[in-house]
Amino acid sequence: MTDSFYVRVDDDRFESTLHTIGPWSNEAQHAGPPSALIGRAVEAVDPSFEGQVARITFDILGPVPVAPVTVSATVIRPGRSVQLVEATLRTDEQEVMHARAWRIRTADLDLETPVVEEAPPAGPDDGDRVPLDQSFPGYGSAMEWVYVAGSFFELGPATCWFRMRYPLIDGEEPSPLTRVLIAADSGNGISTSLDFTKWVFINPDLSVYLHRMPVGEWVCLAARTDPKNTGVGVAASTIYDRTGAIGRGLQSLFIGPR
After folding, report:
1. DSSP bridge pairs for 255
2. Which long-range contacts (CB under 8 A, 24 or more apart) does 131-138 make?
3. Considering 39, 80, 162, 168, which has the largest number of Cβ atoms within 10 A of its Cβ?
């Protein structure tokens, strides 16, 4: 098996490997890898811009097949302080994901108001490692999962550290943003409040807000899912690196019986 989530075909086209397979079908990707692939394209647009992605929202237009995909990104609102980037992910047949990202310039400011830093949870060295090779092959076994609160096999809120076992693209070091985005879509998965064998809870979107990029390989989600009898739910995550909180993640959920 190829030791990356994607194999480069050319500058904007990639072959999806088995490491991208999600939990709902062996023919569909987990949304984490394609989100990271889009984030990589967003970062590559206008490399002279001195800032970072502060918010990126993904609309998942349908299942992303485990197949060749093409990603593109363009600046639709240029600027020196803020910039809006639009990106798409397509198969040979159709567009399957659409994203918009606000990039904001970064600076070293001396703020008058004291900045309160949110401390991180217990680190990945202190948690329970979950081997998912059999129960969740593909993406599940291509990531390291370390729970410091809750459990993959228990319902309810959970806090889990993630680390990529493989690079996003063969021969390329993942960027800090891609490390966040490949994990962020798992918020509803680690904190589900419903029996996976009886219910589907699929998110058609993902929004990630970041005030800084993570340091190091590990990214943590402290997540909670709130399902409602209307068939709609919301999953919310606080995102950490080893030094503290770096942002938030939000997902809307379609909920239905299997």
Report:
1. 201
2. 136/23, 137/18, 137/21, 138/18, 138/19, 138/20, 138/21, 138/22, 138/26, 138/30
3. 39
Distance CA 251, CA 142 (A): 22
| pLDDT digit string, tens, across residues 83-115 | 999 999 999 989 999 999 999 999 988 887 877
Q: What is the pTM of this model?
A: 0.94
Rounded CA Rg of the chain: 18
- What is the distance in angstroms between the CA of the first residue and the CA of the last residue of the chain? 31
Q: How confident is the model at residue 154 (pLDDT cuts 50, 70, 90)?
A: confident
Which residues are paired to 208 by β-bridges?
A: 56, 249
Mean pLDDT rounded to a whole number for the chain: 93
β-pair partners for 97? 60, 89
- What is the Cα 208 distance to its own chain's centre? 8
Which residues make beta-bridge pairs with 227? 233
CB–CB of 207/247 below 8 Å?
Answer: no
CA distance 66 to 141: 16
Q: Which residues pair with 14 in a beta bridge?
A: 8, 69
State the residue for tokens 């500058």. 11
Among candidate residues 33, 10, 13, 11, the one with its CA nearest the CA of residue 21: 33
In angstroms, the CA 181 to CA 219 distance is: 10
129-151 core/surface letters (b: 16 or more CB in 10 A; e: else): ebebeeebebbbbbbbbbbbbbe
Report the alpha-carbon distance of residue 205 to residue 141 in Å, rounded.
23
Token pair, residue 132, equals: 């998912």
Q: Which amino acid is at 237?
A: S
The residue behind tokens 């994607």 is 6
The number of beta carbons lying within 10 Å of the beta carbon of residue 213 is 16
Are 246 and 210 in contact, with CB atoms under 8 Å apart? Answer: yes
